[in-house]
């Protein structure tokens, strides 16, 4: 259910030009509260209230709407979100969900996302790269890998730290493009350097499990049913 919703939100964000910052904040807001309740399997619990399965689309749109209002100059209109959801909810329900989410989170809506750590990691990557000029593809590849990393719930569970997912995406991006620190004796270790360790706070060993999990998903996403991010960045 969650993967379907997050995958669909990629398409909604692309349709209404929602920023990458807003998209990642929306997924973070979505993941903060809902968790499976064993005694009420038809519902999800978020703070002081339950979310029925039939309301998940409205919940996702509301999270994206809130995030876009915080991050973007021109967020999508509520009528646009009602339209793209095929009228599964109305504008009044969208506003009601906004009130419930804001109240449930105590209006603490600015949350840390993996994107907050990517920019510094990319600067550190450039500082220790073997080439002098920024790699023209690395940033887009890392953003793509971050989008993939938000889709599978199992990967999100592994990467409970946003900074860990960000560092893993940078490592995998460098490895995919063959960007090293110029260590010809050990090119595999050249994908991660003391500079990157210092600025991200993670060693290569710390990243191993997350990088491998992200790489497995990267390798199969083109044949997956959840491939909106793949099509968006293709």
From TrEMBL:
Single Gene Ontology MF annotation: cyclin-dependent protein serine/threonine kinase regulator activity
One GO biological process term: cell division
Leader peptide range in chain numbering: none
Residues in Cyclin C-terminal domain copies: 112-234
Keyword Transferase: no
Keywords: Cell cycle, Cell division, Cyclin
InterPro entries named among the record's database cross-references: Cyclin, Cyclin-like_dom, Cyclin-like_sf, Cyclin_A/B-like, Cyclin_C-dom, Cyclin_N
Residue ranges of domain Cyclin-like in the record: 7-103, 116-216
Family of this protein: Belongs to the cyclin family.
Protein's recorded name: Cyclin N-terminal domain-containing protein
Organism listed in the record: Phaeodactylum tricornutum (strain CCAP 1055/1)
Gene that produces this protein: CYCA/B_1
């Amino acid at each position: 259910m969650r993967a379907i919703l997050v995958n669909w939100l990629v398409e909604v964000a692309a349709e209404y030009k929602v920023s990458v910052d807003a998209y990642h904040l929306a997924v973070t807001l979505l993941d903060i509260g809902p968790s499976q309740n064993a005694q009420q399997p038809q519902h999800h619990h978020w703070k002081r209230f339950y979310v029925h399965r039939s309301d998940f689309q409205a919940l996702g749109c509301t999270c994206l709407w809130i995030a876009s209002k915080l991050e973007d100059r021109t967020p999508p209109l509520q009528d646009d979100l009602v339209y793209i959801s095929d009228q599964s909810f109305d504008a009044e329900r969208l506003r009601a969900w906004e009130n419930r989410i804001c109240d449930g989170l105590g209006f603490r809506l600015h949350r840390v996302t993996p994107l907050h750590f990517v920019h510094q990691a990319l600067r550190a990557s450039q500082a220790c790269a073997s080439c002098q000029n920024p790699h023209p593809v690395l940033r887009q590849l890392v953003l793509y890998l971050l989008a993939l990393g938000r889709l599978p719930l199992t990967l999100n569970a592994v990467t409970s730290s946003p900074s860990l997912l960000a560092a893993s995406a940078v490592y995998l991006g460098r490895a995919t493009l063959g960007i090293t620190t110029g260590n010809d004796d050990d090119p595999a270790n050249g994908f991660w350097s003391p500079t990157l360790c210092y600025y991200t706070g993670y060693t290569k060993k710390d990243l191993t499990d997350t990088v491998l999990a992200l790489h497995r998903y990267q390798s199969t996403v083109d044949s997956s049913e959840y491939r909106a991010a793949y099509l968006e960045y293709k």
